[in-house]
Amino acid sequence: KFSRVLSPSLVPPTLLPLAGGALFGTVLGAVYVLVGVTTGAALAFCVGRLLGRSFVSGRLRGRVAVVEAAVARRGVWAVVVCRLIPIVPFALSNYAFGTTSVRPRQMITGTMLGALPATVAYAALGSATMQGDWLGAKVAGGCVLALGACGVVGTYLVWRRRPRATATPSA
């Protein structure tokens, strides 16, 4: 419930599942946080759509237009990848996706799928820490580190394969 209020704000998304796991346990904490984060992301997406889509769509040119077309083509997977990359600000990306042609259902599905691994790992870490389960905290912490490493590799792969504007022949 608290994550619905905090998710559209600039609260770091790692704090929500840590607190959710500490307060409600791994499973319930992860479920509550995932529902709250997805609801908050959907609200921020709607704000971005209402306030920014028409402005942005009329000004897409060059490389930005190529990136927007790639995001629109990939829909759900563009959102999933964005959620898995640790350097992409979660809250800001919610608003930014609202300015793209990604459909709301794609945004919601992508947010749930992309946020699920980290939400469960951080909720497990919060729960294990709160219960004094040091082995569980080490395992959950290892999962968090593995997710971070995968995110760094994913960031590199996405950056390396980023869409490029086609070169126009010079006269």
Q: What labels describe this entry?
A:
about 170 residues; mainly alpha; about 0% strand; elongated
Care to describe what's here?
With 171 residues, this protein is mostly helical. The protein contains eight helices and no strands. Helix 3 packs across helix 6 (90-98) and helix 3 (26-57) packs antiparallel against helix 7. The longest helix is centred in the N-terminal third of the chain and has 32 residues, at 26-57. The chain is elongated, with a radius of gyration of 18 Å.
Describe the protein's topology.
Layout lengths: L1 H5 L8 H10 L1 H32 L4 H13 L1 H9 L5 H9 L5 H28 L2 H27 L11
Considering DSSP H and I runs of 4 or more, what fraction of the residues is helical? Answer: over 70%
In round numbers, the mean pLDDT is 80
Structural class: mainly alpha
Low-pLDDT stretches = 1-6
Between the first and last Cα atoms, what is the distance in angstroms? 60 Å
Strand/helix succession: HHHHHHHH
Radius of gyration: 18 Å
The main β sheet shows up as: none
Q: Compute the number of strand runs.
A: 0
**Cα shape:** elongated
**Portion in beta strands:** under 5%
What is this entry, summarized?
This protein is mainly alpha-helical.
